[in-house]
Write the structure tokens for this entry.
Amino acid sequence: MVKKANQPLGARGNCRYPASTMKEFFQHAAITDGIIVRAAVSFLPEQSQPDAGKWFWVYHIRLENHSDETVQLRTRHWRITDARGMVNHVDGEGVVGETPTLNPGQTHDYVSGCPLTTPHGSMEGHFTFTRKDGSPLEVAIPFFPLAAPATAD
């Protein structure tokens, strides 16, 4: 289930997610000035073609505003590294076509994907938000590994 923006932290209907559940699902997290970025990643074998040198992962990002101010996501910067050490920088506006505004206590979730030409790699980066006064806030995206399961021939 992908939650829409502007839902209270940890809310799903009338129940609250326990912290242990959040840590189990989102294995990676970073916090910057009260903004938490959580990441969960999964290898997708059905979208991968190892014989053709193509591997694919899907990642779920949750943005949580634990600060006392409203922020709006403006840009993203990803540093994607493959198993050969090749680095690809990806910059753009918003995330999946959106520039969500998060009031204090709100979250925004999105899901996207990453193809690589190696079975292992990593992702990390930052989001740039703007505060209500227009000042920028650079928020870390946690490092997370991309790893295809080993297969026996």
